Amino acid sequence: MFLEILKITIPSLIVFITAYYVLKTVLQKENENRRVQIILQNQKTITPIRLQAYERVILFLERISPNSIIMRLQTPNMTVQQLQKEMLITIRSEFEHNLSQQLYLSIDAWEQVKIAKEKTIKLINSAAEECSPTDLAIKLSQNIFEKLIEMEKSPTQEAINFIKEEIKTLY
Description:
Blueprint: H1 2-64, H2 66-73, H3 80-97, H4 107-129, H5 137-150, H6 155-168
């Protein structure tokens, strides 16, 4: 009698254990597939937003580059002090307008953007220190351009190059 029970029980246990492991493996693979699908769906949504953030930051850097900002802000009969003030206000307001982009940029890329902004402000201030506040703004512009020539690359161009290299890693 005991032998008969073992003949029935042992095959049943073997079938049960096999079914258990097969089902466990299938369910684990199904969960992994779902997780991968969610990640892919998130990538499809986030990648265009990240690219848009990189575009906006490059636009910001182009707008605060000394060449661009001087051409936009300088007017005839403007003094050094007025131009310096306008440039600094513009850089800070542009930066504040783009603060939210840091959410989509890497920490290193955002750090490069901040460094470029600070170096540009420092460049403007150091060029302004060499002028009298009442001089015409063209004198400040000349000083800024002279300092830019002394540099290998402008601070904004360095940051733009870094960001372009980082964008390549997204693909």
